[in-house]
Structure formats: C-alpha cells, structure tokens
C-alpha cells in the first residue's frame, strides 16, 4: 500500500497562479524532491496479506491517498486530481485517459437506459458520436438544442430528462452559453448540469461557481498546454465524482502515470499561458477582422460577437485562445491560406503553446484557430503574409 501526501493545508482563497504551482503537491517525504515524482508502476506492495485486504477495501471505497493498482489510483495522478479540484473549486476530481473518457464516464454516472439528455447543438464532433451513437444505442435518448436559446432548452425537457450537457464555449462556432441561466433551469427540472470547459480552462472560467454540477476537460489541451500528453478530467461534488471514478475503473479508462506527470508539470504555468494566449488571440482577431479577405471572425472578445456582453461578464480575465474564421472564397482558398502560414501548424488538436490551425471544409469552410504563446507581432505578421499569399 502506498499513500500520497499532497499539500492539503493551502488556503482556498489563494490566487490561481499560486494554486497552479502548489495545490496537490508537496516535497516528497522520501527524498525531499521538490517536484512530484513519477510513480511509473502498475502495482504496489503490501507489508502483509492483512494489509493488502485493508488497502484494497479502502481504495475501492475511493479513500484518498490509498493505492494498490494504478488502474484504480496512482500517487502521481492523485496529486494532479487534487490540483485540478483546487483550481475548479471542487470537492474532488478524477483524471482519466482522455477528454472523451472524461465525458463518457461523467455522462454514464448520471444516465441509464430509458433516460433522456439535452445537449448542445454545436459540439465537438466526437462528443456527438458519443451521444448520438454510443449512448443512444444503449437506450439513452439525446436531444440537441441551441443552448443559447433558453426557451428551446426548457421546451426540450421531458419527464425522463436527467442531464444537460453543454460546452461553455462551443466547438467550433464559439457560441457562449449563459451558464447561470442554464443552471437555474437545470435546478428547476432536477437535471445534472455538466459543462465541458476545455476551451477556457479554470484560469478563465470555473463553471461550478456558476451552478454546474460537473465540469469536464480534455486535459490534453490548455491544462497540459504542450501537446505531449493525452488525459481528461471530471471535477465536482464528491458524491458524483465517486460514480465517475467507479466508471473509470470499471471501464479501464485509467490515465498513464507518465501522462499525469506531464499534465501536472504543464499546469504550473496554466495562468501565464492563458493570459498570453488570450492577449494574442484578441490581437489576431482584431487584425483578421480588419482584412477584406476575411468574411467572418467569431471570437467572444470582439464587440461584433453575438454573445460578447455575456462573455465579458463571465470572462473578466480574458476570452481565451480559440476562434473561428471564414474567408471569402472556396475550400481551395482556405487550403492555400492554411498552407501559407509559417507559425501555425495544421493540426486537429488545440490548447498548445504552438498556434494551430484546423481547416474544416465540411463545415462551410470554417477555420478553427488555437492561438498559442508566440510573440504577438510575429503571429499578426504571419497571418498578414498568409492572406497576401492566398
């Protein structure tokens, strides 16, 4: 049996940057190492058969800091979970193998066959596959609505509706959901309210503070920030997280300890990276909006965004690094523009310190941009030369 010793005595009112560095971590008691060790082990040894039985029973009841097998729990992952819980203002958090593992185990924790779920109309494509194919095939009904239309959400509620699933900033159109208003509607109808906050991170938005029951992230993205590890997280009340943990364990959705260690390392600079990406994104959005080659820029930090006033209330510390644009012209024009960029790799992911561009010809030639931490002037100059080239 092994136990972790995270720094649990931190003031919860500490700033985000301080919590990003210190929460969940403490000097290693064995070696005095400052950084949390990578516990790259599948199993943990016991002093006796009696100790083994006791540890397994305690770990299966999700007692913090008790480990016997890394599918169920690992000290490196536990440190990450404590850091994430502190940043989200949650009672607990569970880390899984990917963002989709987080979404699936969260939804399966509150939905059974015969239940109904309301979900955003504008969603990450694989989340739609999860909802419309995987869950629907198991007898769970799903209705997609425009969650920026509260009347439409209310009209979709049925007697068997059990959950409301949204993205705080939608993928890929960048719609901003009114989280407090949706929370009130969810409470009125006794729905479990789940918010995917991948695009913004707890650095810019903490959905639990706006009434969400659970918040999920693809930790691969802004939380890790370096494009080198795949993981997902669910945070919220311990009662719900215990159910999520059960699903992660039963479905074998455990994260690699090494990936936990990489995400843990990346999160120490979360606030700094989000501040830089937000500033860069606003500058790039303003520049692109000024160019005649650009037909549309969807970025919540622009006054022209349809939900800008709401975004300004919900996101006082920055609007994030994500935007969507559309050029005048066809798919060939879009392709030439993306290929001409020198500082923006064409890639499907996001939330990296590198700026990434994701052309979407099947979505009316929409281009999703994930703005990184390069120097602002260099990014603007790169987009200028790419527009000139196409």
TrEMBL record:
Its cofactor is pyridoxal 5'-phosphate. It is an enzyme of class 4 (lyase). Coiled coil: none annotated. Pfam families: Cys_Met_Meta_PP. The modification N6-(pyridoxal phosphate)lysine is found at residue 221. Its EC number is 4.4.1.2. Keywords: Lyase, Pyridoxal phosphate. It catalyses: L-methionine + H2O = methanethiol + 2-oxobutanoate + NH4(+); L-homocysteine + H2O = 2-oxobutanoate + hydrogen sulfide + NH4(+) + H(+). One of its GO terms (biological process) is transsulfuration. The keyword Metal-binding does not apply. One of its GO terms (cellular component) is cytoplasm. One of its GO terms (molecular function) is homocysteine desulfhydrase activity. It comes from the Bacteria. Belongs to the trans-sulfuration enzymes family. This is homocysteine desulfhydrase. The lineage of its organism: Bacteria, Bacillati, Actinomycetota, Actinomycetes, Propionibacteriales.
């Amino acid at each position: 049996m092994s136990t972790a010793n995270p720094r649990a005595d931190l003031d919860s009112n500490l700033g985000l940057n301080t919590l990003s560095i210190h929460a969940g971590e403490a000097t290693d008691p064995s070696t005095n190492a400052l950084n949390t060790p990578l516990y790259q082990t599948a199993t943990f040894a016991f002093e006796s058969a009696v100790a083994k039985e006791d540890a397994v029973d305690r770990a299966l009841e999700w007692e913090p800091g008790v480990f016997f097998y890394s599918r169920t729990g690992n000290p490196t992952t536990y440190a990450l979970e404590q850091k994430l819980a502190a940043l989200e203002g949650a009672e607990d958090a569970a880390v899984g193998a990917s963002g989709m593992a987080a979404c699936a185990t969260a939804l399966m924790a509150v939905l059974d066959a015969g239940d109904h779920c309301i979900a955003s109309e504008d969603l990450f494509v694989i989340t739609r596959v999860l909802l419309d194919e995987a869950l629907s095939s198991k007898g769970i009904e799903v209705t997609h609505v425009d969650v920026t239309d509260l009347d439409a959400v209310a009209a979709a509620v049925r007697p068997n509706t059990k959950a409301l699933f949204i993205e705080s900033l939608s993928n890929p159109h960048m719609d901003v959901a009114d989280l407090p208003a949706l929370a009130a509607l969810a409470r009125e109808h006794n729905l479990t309210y789940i918010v995917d906050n991948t695009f913004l991170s707890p650095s810019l938005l903490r959905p639990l503070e706006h009434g969400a029951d659970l918040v999920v992230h693809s930790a691969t993205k802004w939380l890790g920030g370096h494009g080198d590890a795949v993981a997902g997280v669910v945070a919220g009340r311990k009662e719900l997280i215990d159910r999520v943990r059960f699903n992660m364990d039963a479905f074998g959705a455990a994260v690699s300890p090494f990936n936990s260690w990489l995400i843990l390392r990346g999160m120490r600079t979360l606030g700094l990276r989000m501040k830089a990406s937000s500033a860069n994104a606003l500058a790039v959005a303003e520049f692109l909006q000024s160019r005649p080659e650009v037909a549309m820029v969807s970025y919540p930090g622009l006054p022209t965004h349809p939900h800008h006033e709401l975004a300004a209330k919900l996101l006082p510390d920055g609007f994030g690094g994500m935007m969507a644009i559309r050029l005048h012209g066809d798919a060939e024009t879009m392709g030439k523009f993306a290929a001409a960029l020198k500082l923006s790799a064409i890639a499907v992911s996001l939330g990296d310190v590198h700026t990434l561009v994701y052309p979407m010809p099947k979505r009316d030639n929409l281009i999703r941009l994930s703005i990184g931490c390069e120097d602002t002037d260099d990014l603007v100059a790169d987009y200028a030369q790419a527009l000139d080239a196409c």
